[in-house]
Design goal:
Blueprint (H helix, E strand, L loop, with lengths): L1 H9 L6 H31 L9 H30 L1 H9 L1
Helix pairs in contact: 2-3
Membrane topology: Peripheral membrane protein
Protein name: Mitochondrial import inner membrane translocase subunit
Family: Belongs to the small Tim family.
């Protein structure tokens, strides 16, 4: 199973550039969705002591802080991905050294 996924990834070089770009974008979307899910789970576990009809002020402040950190982290990751895309040839060369 692992060899088939690596051979699929290796075969992307012969794929239409538009299709390859689409696959990269969809992969980034999937990673982002995974990050959202992980942060939602983390914030829920950290901030929600006892689910009830209303949030207490401590839980509300915790969720706000958690979401703000998530936004900051997401922005950092997106900026980093953009930088990586701009310098992709240099990045891939540094990995082969």
């Amino acid at each position: 199973m692992d060899s088939s996924s690596s051979s699929s990834a290796a075969g992307l070089g012969s794929v239409d550039p538009q299709l390859q770009h689409f696959i990269e974008v969809e992969t980034q979307k999937q990673r982002f969705q995974q990050l959202v899910h992980q942060m939602t789970e983390l914030c829920w576990e950290k901030c929600m002591d006892k689910p009830g009809p209303k949030l207490d002020s401590r839980a509300e402040a915790c969720f706000v802080n958690c979401v703000e950190r998530f936004i900051d982290t997401s922005q950092f990751i997106l900026n980093r991905l953009e930088q990586t895309q701009k310098t992709k040839p240099v990045f891939s060369e540094s990995l082969s050294d």
